[in-house]
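Title: Comparing notes on inverse folding

I've been comparing how different people in this forum approach sequence design from structure. To keep things fair, I'm posting one structure and asking everyone to reply with a full sequence. Here's the target:
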């Protein structure tokens, strides 16, 4: 039933969300040549978050700067922890991964990224950093 209108919904999304598709394609293209946990890939993650309207949670200033408690320095610290959770998970398409086997690692990585507190990605350390698509 929900899939009956999928072609129309996808067409509407592609027309109104072209910017999302363009950014996602650019990030995926960069991902082909850059390791996901590399410092070179960090700007792609940041650009994607900004493009997907997450910038309001990242705080002000230069989000690509690495000094102090900048967003990029917080992201780098989180990515090092996430690598511990996902480092052995194969980097394949979602259709190819055994989600049952990887579920606990994926959940731990998400919880790490979303966590509040002194190491939070959210500029307001009391809040979590959940990435949602409307």
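Reply #1:
Here's my take.
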């Amino acid at each position: 039933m929900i899939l009956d209108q999928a072609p129309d919904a996808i067409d509407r999304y592609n027309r109104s969300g072209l910017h999302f598709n363009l950014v996602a394609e650019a990030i995926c293209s960069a991902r082909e040549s850059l390791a996901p946990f590399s410092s070179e890939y960090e700007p792609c993650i940041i650009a994607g978050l900004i493009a997907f309207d997450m910038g309001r949670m990242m705080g002000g200033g230069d989000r690509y700067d690495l000094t102090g408690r900048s967003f990029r320095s917080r992201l780098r610290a989180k990515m090092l922890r996430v690598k511990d959770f996902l480092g052995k998970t194969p980097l394949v398409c979602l259709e190819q991964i055994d989600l049952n086997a990887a579920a606990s690692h994926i959940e731990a990585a998400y919880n790490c990224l979303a966590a509040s507190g002194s190491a939070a990605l959210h500029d307001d350390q009391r809040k979590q950093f959940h990435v949602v698509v409307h």
